[in-house]
Specification:
Helix content is 42%, strand content 21%. It is an alpha/beta fold. It has a single domain, classed as Collagenase (Catalytic Domain) (3-Layer(aba) Sandwich), CATH 3.40.390.30. The protein has a five-stranded mixed β-sheet, sandwiched between helices. The longest helix has 17 residues. It is globular, with a radius of gyration of 15 Å. The two termini are 25 Å apart.
Length: 183
Amino acid sequence: MTWSPPSKNMTDTAMNTDTPPPHLEIVAHMMVADVIIHDLKWEGVNGLSTLIKKAMHGTNNIFDDEDCCPLSVTFTLMNDPEIQTLNKNFRQKDKPTNVLSFPDGEPDDNGRLHLGDIAIAFETLTRESKEQDISFKNHLSHLIVHGLLHLYGYDHEDDSEADEMESLEIEILKDMGIKNPYI
């Protein structure tokens, strides 16, 4: 990826409010996730914390390294207009997308290595789930895994990179009991 906004401030770009959004803290092995909920539709997703934790754990299992330091990531669960603003500002694409990842790699306030930020749009996720005839939760799990792999440095700019990243996604999702999203 060639674009990278300032970490931890990405949601300020998309939201103009002084009221802090609700958030959750989720711990999976050596990773702590701060989950910021910008759109109340996300609060209606049953088992959201468990789903995020399972996807984090599944992805982290691929990179299990006993010598690794504690990690952190921020998930911002937003709507299409907010993610469209981010997509326009940081990728020059004036349209909503399903997920955006913003790598960081700097220590957070607690001394953990902050991998970066992941933004996910509710409406796009919902629409894609229906269009692809897959469950909302399975598609969300896939987008979380996809976003985390970007933070770990994987990309899909060319066929070789895409094949490698998709193979990892398929393996992680299979271990989570989710079928291959690419078939």
